[in-house]
Amino acid sequence: MSNKIAVQIDDLTVAYNYKPVLWDIDLEIPEGVLMAIVGPNGAGKSTLIKSILGILKPIAGSVRIYGKPYKKQQALVAYVPQKGSVDWDFPTTALDVVMMGTYGSLGWIKRPGQKEKKAALEALEKVGMLPFKNRQISQLSGGQQQRIFLARALVQNASIYFMDEPFQGVDATTEIAIINILKELRKAGKTVIVVHHDLQTVPEYFDWVTFLNVKKIATGPVKDIFNDDNLTKTYGINYKVSIQE
Amino acid sequence: MDVSEYIKLVFTDYTLRTITLGTAILGAVTGMLGSFAVLRKQSLLGDAISHAALPGIALAFLLTGTKDSHVLLLGALISGLIGTFWIRSIIKKTHLKSDTALGLILSLFFGFGMLLLTFIQKQPNANQAGLDKYLFGQAATLVESDVWMMAIVTGICLFVLLLFWKEFKILLFDADYTKTLGFNTKFIDVLITSFIVLAIVLGLQTVGVVLMSAMLLAPAAAARQWTNSLGIMIVLSATFGAFSGVFGTAISASQNNLSTGPVIVIIAGVFVLFSFIFSPSRGLLFKQIRFIKNRRDLQQHKTLAFMFRIAETHDNISHPHAIKILNNFQGFTKSTLQQLVRKNYVKIDGNMWHLTEEGFKTATNLYNQQEKTND
């Protein structure tokens, strides 16, 4: 972890219709952390990520990636959406989906070539999906689909990775495979931000955590702030987690 | 008229050739663009657009007084685009869901269009007749310049499709992700939608407001059954659309008084029906066959496994047992037993059965396999 700030959020407020989903969020994410965003359903976790990535338009506030607006820095950022956000019956193959990760660097009109294909195959290899490269995506299991999404982000070779519940509905093997890849990314100096639901695994998987419930409750190193006090503030009921030393 | 005579006529008769070409091109371009509508789950958009085009036709006539199809279709295009634009802004700016917005625009525009049509029909001048052909289409009114226009639009459409192939594909699959990569998704979206509107407007003269959406959806729905590749799906869809046009025209030309538009739509429907039933991977027929086969295999395996467990307890596997004990412990059917005999897994001698060497081996393998998957 360095002293650089990878993502800087100031006064971010987002509302659907009239209801605020995120309220006045100030958040600094240091470079090189593996950070979990935790909070109850409807806390605005996905919304926070989508606002950072410019998918949603905030009604106030600013987001900076390494000091500049997202639009100028999108080459540095990769996104893994929720698995359920797309139609997996779409007529395409696993390799084809992973290739989409190269589209951003290709820009308009230019088609992917051998170089892009090679990068996509390497990413498939990394997530253990190479044998399934020509599989129609509807014939993949939930865990395999998640791995494909991860591979698509890996192809982007970004500095900052945003992942929306990558562990949702995957089996233990896939979960371990994914977290190992995330830890590898951190080791390579990348910043990884994950919307996460399983509080039990936070201390084991992550080194940084942000508690969110419409407002930002707390953010910082897991060992300092992942405690009953913040959990209670975030989830509204008395929480007891035992943190293994 | 037999088939060869008809084919000869297609090449020699000016009117028939024009109509056949026109409907074929129309089918191809709507099939092509329809794939996008279907994959974006905007199937009903086509229906709304075609209905929204009707007031444009009527207004164009009222303003200009001509019945020139190009002028009327320009009116249709404008009003279709306005309808589409309104649908988009209703979805974006209100709490209403897209089906509500589509239904609302469809019926409001169509109602307004019908109102204008009846108003026009009450007018005293003699020029007004024939506008109602845009309701159900009248392919016989196609002239060479119409076909040229269709061909040019199809050409442009194909060019744009190939140029932005990558962008179209990724937007269809994952719009949010496309945005994060820095693509202007609104531009791609407007491009696709504009071409859909254009294709629909081109078809109004031939197929009509009411049936136009079928031209968009049916070939695409049929094509989806046969392939898991977007490119092949679009080519197939265009082919199905073109053949619907050609066959539809042929049937309506050889049978008197059958209007072309509805026949084309019905042919497209036949393609859909055929695809739903006979597609190897998604079709109902093969699904049912696979289901029956699996069930039969499972039944055989069950019986075989049960016999194996009995035979296992004896040193000699060909030790005969009564058929009755199968009955007592486990339901089995005569046909299952007969199938096992036919496969030479089991031998039956009167009321007794015993496993063959081969049957025993197969059953052992079944067990091993099961244990492996349980691990």
Automatic annotation (TrEMBL), chain A:
Keywords: ATP-binding, Nucleotide-binding, Transport. SMART domains: AAA. Belongs to the ABC transporter superfamily. This is Metal ABC transporter ATP-binding protein. InterPro entries: AAA+_ATPase (IPR003593), ABC_transporter-like_ATP-bd (IPR003439), ABC_transporter-like_CS (IPR017871), Metal_Ion_Import_ABC (IPR050153), P-loop_NTPase (IPR027417). The keyword Isomerase does not apply. The lineage of its organism: Bacteria, Pseudomonadati, Bacteroidota, Flavobacteriia, Flavobacteriales. One of its GO terms (molecular function) is ATP hydrolysis activity. The keyword Nucleotide-binding applies. It comes from Allotamlana fucoidanivorans. Gene3D superfamilies: P-loop containing nucleotide triphosphate hydrolases. Residues 7-239 form the ABC transporter domain. PROSITE patterns: ABC_TRANSPORTER_1 (PS00211), ABC_TRANSPORTER_2 (PS50893).
Automatic annotation (TrEMBL), chain B:
Its main location: membrane. It is found in: Cell membrane. Gene3D superfamilies: ABC transporter involved in vitamin B12 uptake, BtuC. The chain crosses the membrane at residues 20-39, 44-63, 69-88, 100-120, 147-166, 187-218, 230-251, 258-278. CDD domains: TM_ABC_iron-siderophores_like. GO terms for biological process: cellular response to iron ion; response to zinc ion; transmembrane transport. Keywords: Cell membrane, Membrane, Transmembrane, Transmembrane helix, Transport. This is Metal ABC transporter permease. Belongs to the ABC-3 integral membrane protein family. Pfam families: ABC-3. GO terms for cellular component: ATP-binding cassette (ABC) transporter complex. It is a multi-pass membrane protein.
